[in-house]
Design a protein that fits this description.
Elements: H1 3-16, H2 19-26, H3 30-44, E1 49-50, E2 56-57, H4 59-87, E3 90-97, H5 103-116, E4 119-126, H6 129-137, E5 143-147, E6 155-157, E7 161-164, E8 166-170, E9 190-193, H7 200-212, E10 220-222, H8 226-234, E11 238-242, H9 244-247, E12 253-257, E13 264-272, H10 280-292
Parallel strand pairs: 3-4, 3-5, 9-10, 9-11
Antiparallel strand pairs: 1-2, 5-13, 6-13, 7-13, 8-11, 8-12
Helix pairs in contact: 1-2, 1-3, 1-4, 5-10
Amino acid sequence: MDLLRHLRHFVVVARELHFGRAAELLGMAQPPLSQSIRRLERELGVILFDRSRQVRLTTAGQLLLGEADELLAGERRLRNTVDQVRRGTLGVLRAGVPPETPAVTLRALLDGLAARAPGLEVDLHELTSAEQARTLTEGRLDVGLLHQPVAENGLRFGPAVEVPMGVLLPRGAPLARARQVALADLTGLDLITAPPATAPGWHDHLLAVCREHGYRPARVRHARNPEFLFGLVLAGAAVAVAPEAVARREPRIAWRPIVGAPLVRHTSAAWPLRSAHPAAPMFGQLAAEVLGVAETPPGPAQLAPAARAWPVLFEAGQDAKLPS
């Protein structure tokens, strides 16, 4: 027996106290409506309506009306909740971002998610591209923001954003006087980059392009933390290849574009092909919009207090463990 359907019929008849009008409101014929009420009465073992002269609620019917209203309201709330979960606007989204993601970018991403899905909680994790790819395929992360190239391994990718890469130099370095720097001009200098394990595809691509353009680093040095990278660059005899936004964190560092722009980093969101979180495509589109915005420092208006707080969990390092 479809109890909720029969209760909906009962509530309309109880409000109208007229089977004909109730049937019209329900868009059905009167005989099936009467049969529905009779079946409900048999199921509950009580008489709900006094039909002697005019339709009136019995004591049992009056008591049931209040309970039925509450039960049907609960059903509507339940269906609304499930619908929001299905559309990805409610629940928890486990998302990963690279460790070097600027605070302004994180703020814009979280603000955008709060505006588009106010009921969605973001469980944010600081993980390298390699760590994200692994945890996505293991089902311990719902969506990530990865630097390409990344092997698909059962992943779906959102729109990619292209970020031109340039050379980080001490502002007093002779090469910093030029408007552009050729990779071959870096000969004899060490190259500072993230460890291969953090983004193997990008690491290999970077070294291959450097070799193709005449730059074979005297030594490849690894830095995970931006502050450590800046320290190595400022110490001299070493350069780094990074987006322009990275240089804005340290006024003593200059960023110069590379002649011919041979190095462009592609970044996109990724999520599992199977059993994907409903909010993952929305995250991917929003991430592309945020990353695609011109890299300019935000004004005070953009840093206004957020409308809501986010439960954010930061985890770094290859041994970082995510909730199962």
